[in-house]
Amino acid sequence: MSNQSESPNPTSSSNKITLKTSDNEVFEVEEAVAMKFCTVKQYFDDENNNNVTSGTSTTLIPLPNVESHPLAILITYCKKHLEIKANNADNKKEMEIDMEHYEREFLKNVMPQELTELILAANYLNFKEALDFFCRAVASAIQNKSVEYVRKFFGLESDFKPGEEEKLREEFAWSFEGVDED
Amino acid sequence: MKRQRIETEARERRERQRIERVERAEGRNVSSETCLSSVRQNAHAQTNADDNKDIISSLPDSLLTHILSFLSIRDSVSTSILSSRWRPLWALVPFLNLNQPSSKYIFKIHTPALEYFHFSGYLNGDDVLENLPNVVESVIQIEDCDSINDYAKRVWDFMGKLCNVISMELSIVTAQILCHGSNHEDRPTFHYLSSLKFCGSIWFEWYAWHAVRLLLCQAPKLQKLNIEHSFLLGSNLNKPNPFLEEPLDVPECMSSHLTTCLYRGFGGYEIEMELVRQILRAARVLQTMKITICSIPKLKNRPRFHKGLSKFHRSSQNCQIVFDNGYFA
Predict the structure, then answer these.
(1) pLDDT tens string B101-125
(2) Closest-CA residue in chain A for B46?
């Protein structure tokens, strides 16, 4: 709690880092935001180690596996995440409440088909909080739902041989008890 | 060189993932309920426009199992019927949270990939648990049962499958059940166990501390002992405890490995003081004894027991006693 002064409000830090996506869009983000992406942090640290003299932050970091659309969403999420953390530096409970509220609102603007690319991008960037958040989002969307509902939600088709599915359903009958109405 | 570095990185990454999974496991129950009814709604909006578009299959298995790890075991198992690709996935989730509230189902667990195992509930005579050699972290909360002696043996056998566990949490009730089978011949030894936590009311039954000590004897390399005492009405806090009076035959870990001991929910009672005194006397390499004080209003005379505790003889010269007042039981 006492070392608050050592970690200044992340949104006010001035150093910028430039990220370039696979579709050649360039994003300039604050260092605090970029450092939440562990893949970027790793790259950044390596660069700094190899080239001690380059104190200025002119680095352009290529992200060949991330498109601009999910990256923009992840940056927004990350900024807000840091902001909420900074605003509630000494009250964990408050922070969780704010975060939960924000995440609920956030998801209202996310389409299910976007979640997949967000998960892939968060995974590639090694941005743990976002990865868990989006995976949890998918999990709770199918929680307590029938197989038919989940297939439709994901857009999956059964590829079992005739009889195979019935056998599995029998074996795992206990897992289908009491699911929600579709 | 480069290759070596990559290997080290891969190892570090695995270790990080392991730690993250533990953290997630801890946070799991809190937040999964709250979000996402909205994604379902979006799904309805979407289905008309864009029917039957596969939105999930581009994810690799590792991410699909990551998603499954946020589901209950029941929901996770039911995904095995989605398609042949999904069929084996649930068994690859390294985390299993099994709640067995009644004897209605018999379980058979054969999942060698499992790393985190959380079991709560009743243990049937016909339940089968295969060896779980990769489980590093486990939470066991066994429910009580009337015919205690046979049951205790069953619970010991069950625990024996977790042969390589590193970090374990037990309910006090589980420890008490195990205590009833203390003459069981094949009591497992947990050679890798380094962190052991007990949760529950340690002063409700006379012999609970005895049960804790019995388990300490099975963990020769234990470094961290964590007691999270929750106050139960009717706890025998004000009476002397016969099990505390018997001479302390020191468990191996106490004299050679135990460096940290935490007691959460300290109320300042005589028997709690005695317990701390015995631990301080027995633990020869202890570095930290942390006491988190339960803020029930009774504790007006705090400075007195702070002082009392500080005066106790410590076998380890490097041992510090740390107090924390911020605990509301």
Answers:
(1) 666 677 777 777 889 999 998 888 7
(2) A111
Nearest-neighbour CA in chain B from A10: distance (Å): 23
Name chain B contacts of A120, Cβ cutoff 8 Å.
58-59, 63
Chain B residues with CB-CB distance to A149 below 8 A? none
> Do residues A145 and A179 make contact, with C-beta atoms less than 8 angstroms apart?
yes
pLDDT in tens, A117-163: 999 999 999 999 999 999 999 999 999 999 999 999 999 999 999 89
Q: Which backbone phi and psi does B141 adopt, to 5 degrees?
A: -130, 90
Give me the sign of the Cα torsion angle B60, B62, B65, B70: negative
Q: Are B224 and B196 in contact (CB under 8 A)?
A: yes
**Residues B17-39 pLDDT 10s:** 656 655 555 544 444 444 455 56
What chain A holds in terms of domains, given with CATH numbers, is: 4-142 (3.30.710.10), 147-176 (no CATH)
Q: Which residues pair with B227 in a beta bridge?
A: B198, B263
**pLDDT at residue B196, rounded to an integer:** 97
Long-range contacts of B179-187 (CB under 8 A, 24+ apart): B179/B152, B179/B207, B179/B210, B179/B211, B179/B214, B180/B148, B180/B149, B180/B151, B180/B152, B181/B149, B181/B152, B181/B153, B181/B155, B181/B156, B182/B214, B184/B152, B184/B153, B184/B156, B186/B156, B186/B157, B186/B160, B187/B156, B187/B160, B187/B218
Pairing of β A26-30 and β A16-21: antiparallel
How far does B89 lie from chain A, in Å, by closest CA?
14
